[in-house]
Design goal:
heterodimer; A: 89 residues; alpha+beta; Phenol Hydroxylase P2 Protein; 2 helices; globular; B: 515 residues; mainly alpha; Ribonucleotide Reductase, subunit A; 4 strands; monooxygenase (chain A)
Amino acid sequence: MSQLVFIAFQDNDNARYLVDAIAADNPEAEVQHQPAMIRIQAEKRLVINRETMEEVLGREWDVQEMLIDVISIGGNVDEDDDHFILQWN
Amino acid sequence: MAIKNKKLNLKDKYQYLTRDMAWDPSYQKKEDIFPDEQFEGIKISDWSQWEDPFRLTMDAYWKYQAEKEKKLYAIFDAFAQNNGHQNISDARYVNALKLFLSGVSPLEYAAFQGYARVGRQFSGAGARVACQMQAIDELRHSQTQQHAMSHYNKHFNGLHDAAHMHDRVWFLSVPKSFFDDARSAGPFEFLTAISFSFEYVLTNLLFVPFMSGAAYNGDMATVTFGFSAQSDEARHMTLGLEVIKFILEQHEDNVPIVQRWIDKWFWRGFRLLSLVGMMMDYMLPNKVMSWAEAWEVYYEQNGGALFKDLERYGIRPPKYQDIANDAKHHVSHQAWSTFYQYGQATNFHTWMPTGEEMAWLSEKYPDTFDKYYRPRFEHWAKEHAEGRRFYNNTLPQLCQVCQIPTIFTEKDDPGQLSHRQIVHEGERYHFCSDGCCDIFRHEPEKYVQAWLPVHQIYQGNCDGGDVETVVAKYYHINIGEDNFEYIGSPEHQRWLAIKGKAPEPAPERSGQDAA
């Protein structure tokens, strides 16, 4: 059986950069556009890297900034100063 | 990034907050300070294993919450100043908000109380911090929802006394009793019920596709509070999963206890969500996805991945999951049929779907809608057109546990009502399902005390013996304003006036005695 992790963001200006960064670091991820939200799912694992976000944004970025725009997640969370990872075992 | 290294990293900050600011008591016994930690039989040997993967500290919490609030209230202001209520898809949509404000927002407040209470009950500092933050979040949700809907209250009926109605109205005992059950349980059952079963497994179904639907129906205020609340839920969900893993890792004896709680609270949550299914399929004029589709994505797919992950602890998917999965084809139709029949006793309006809406339902429910529900709906629409809008005057039999009328059908026989009954200490009790009956059997002393609205009316405890008096005096529903059929209601007329259209004829009310 497939085991998908997912993250959903509000469809706003901040999220555009998050989606770009996630797409760059997770080429297998599927991006779904729904009214007012963007949902991204991937098999087993999805990562957001601070370094990629900082490149995309052109400024320093704290991983916890994503708390403002996230709507929902599915998967075990592993977060530190450099990345946010969702995964199923 | 040399500057960053001067600051504490996330892990260190979190460690300081949740470990180094706590202390071991020296002149009182731990079990006297945390008396509720033992009686459920959960064994915790090492609280230091508790981890919050978000590692949120209070300074970061206030910073991000303040930013969310500023964004949210700017949108509320813009919505009100620009008469945003005039831009929604159709006034029928507002009826979903009436159900939300009286059915869901008080649960946010109940969750606040629940987390504030259990946050005091754990001897582990990490758990106490997590519960404290969640309590504050839940209070915020209750407040922001009331603020968002206060604008609608100026222009629409039925939103005027939600907290009062929550404590009294027949169908609102369904959400109310759900949370009362959780709040009157021990602290570990409360976390399993609310943090895990409800927040992690089921709330996506309420806050994600329904809120996306709110956006699709032009309701900027609701989608914004919904997603702002849900951004906290992402933390709560993570907590829910960590709670379960933590309890299961602490001792193998915890596994069967937790499994029983998961079975119970999955079933209770599934029953509660019947209301949301109906909101999505019948109360959103512009449709995003059907209830069955939402169930497939957010329960079958996401829940499936979750329970596969938990297999390693000896946890299996919830009992009766197969019945719930099959019921996705039926529950929204059965719930809407019920509310349509009892529209004389609701704080919102009901109606029959239009031809176009029925075509959508046929497409989304190819195996069930045309066969089981369309004929009934077309009959009611015809009755209404001929001046006989149907209202049911017989109060329904309620399930002793979920408190929903026994309206659901058997899994492999949609023509057969699902009904169970048992005799306990000389009294007969009725249930909608094996799921609810099992819950009763395990703790009959709890559920014999249920405050069942229909029983209470018949016993004369609701300010009167007839439906009209109960609805007006006891529920505070304004008869002829808040209740009955939508078509031709004062609210419908007002909406037509806003849109510059001619008024509709007044509703017929023959066939019922509550007018």
